[in-house]
Amino acid sequence: MIFTDDINNTIRLDRPPRRIISLVPSLTELLFDLGLEKEIIGVTKFCVHPKNARQKCSIIGGTKKFDFEKIERLNPDLIIANKEENYKEGIERLNKDYPVYVSDIFNLGDALKTIDAIGRMTDRLNDSIDLINRIKIKFDQVKNIFRSRALYFIWQDPLMVAASENFIDYTLSWLGMENAAGHLKRYPELTEAELAGLSPDYVLLSSEPYPFKHKHLERFRQLFPKAEVLLVDGEMFSWYGSRLLKAPKYFASLPFSTFSPSE
User: Fold this and answer.
1) Cα–Cα distance between 230 and 217 in angstroms, integer?
2) Which is it for strands 148-155 and 20-22: parallel, antiparallel or unpaired?
3) Within 10 Å of residue 183's Cβ, how many Cβ atoms?
4) Nearest-5° angle of CA 132, CA 136, CA 140?
5) Pairing relation of β-strands 10-12 and 2-4?
6) pLDDT tens digits for 55-103?
7) Could you please report the per-residue DSSP string of the chain?
8) If we measure between CA atoms, which residue out of 191, 204, 202 comes closest to residue 232?
């Protein structure tokens, strides 16, 4: 079997993999949801879903720092990676010795393509197609349900937001929300003076990568006195595996929505 990943690497598999390492938390959850719990042998320390992933599998480091000796001992026949979440030097080193599938995801289409590819590589195509179809239905139910201007924070010190050219920006746009930092790129650091001119209706404080809590609300209320400040689940806005199936119901539960998708 021959596959091409999102950065044009060729992956050759003689058979469906039996020893899989996932370097991407959201795709670790996907692998388990596709019924591959017996095949997954290694995950990162950030792979928190499902809850038993890190107990069942060997932890091979973080998403930006791999334990190459441990990976060598595990001897995987497939490694799942992501261009943004992992680091180039590490992926290039692994690619010399193992089949590495690298995703590069900016929108829902990219995410569904990755789910399809993983289903094909792991002999779970029927399950992946079923998951894709259910995600499409759920996301169609929440398209453009909001009409507002939002600013999405991912870090506290320095202050960093999700601007354009990432999956969070796509999610906001899909929901009908204008990204107040959409004129910028990726994840810029902004001063309080720069932020003051963005005029969002809503300020969204993500649970990841920085774990914003209730104690942080007051600072942002002072920074944006005309905006409503909310804590939001970052996994729902940025994870692009099987968690996409749960995200629409979560979006509809947010305080600025009166929409209820069907179960």
Assistant:
1) 8
2) unpaired
3) 9
4) 170
5) antiparallel
6) 999 999 999 999 999 999 999 999 999 999 999 999 999 999 999 999 9
7) -EEE-TT--EEE-SSS-SSEEE--HHHHHHHHHTT-TTTEEEE-TT--SSTTHHHHSEE-B-SSSB-HHHHHHH--SEEEEETTTS-HHHHHHHHTTS-EEEE--SSHHHHHHHHHHHHHHTT-HHHHHHHHHHHHHHHHHTTT---EEEEEEEETTTTEE--BSSHHHHHHHHTTEEETTTTSBSS-B--HHHHHTS--SEEEEESSSS---GGGHHHHHHH-TTSEEEEE-HHHHH--SGGGGTHHHHHHHSTT-------
8) 204
User: pTM of this prediction?
Assistant: 0.93
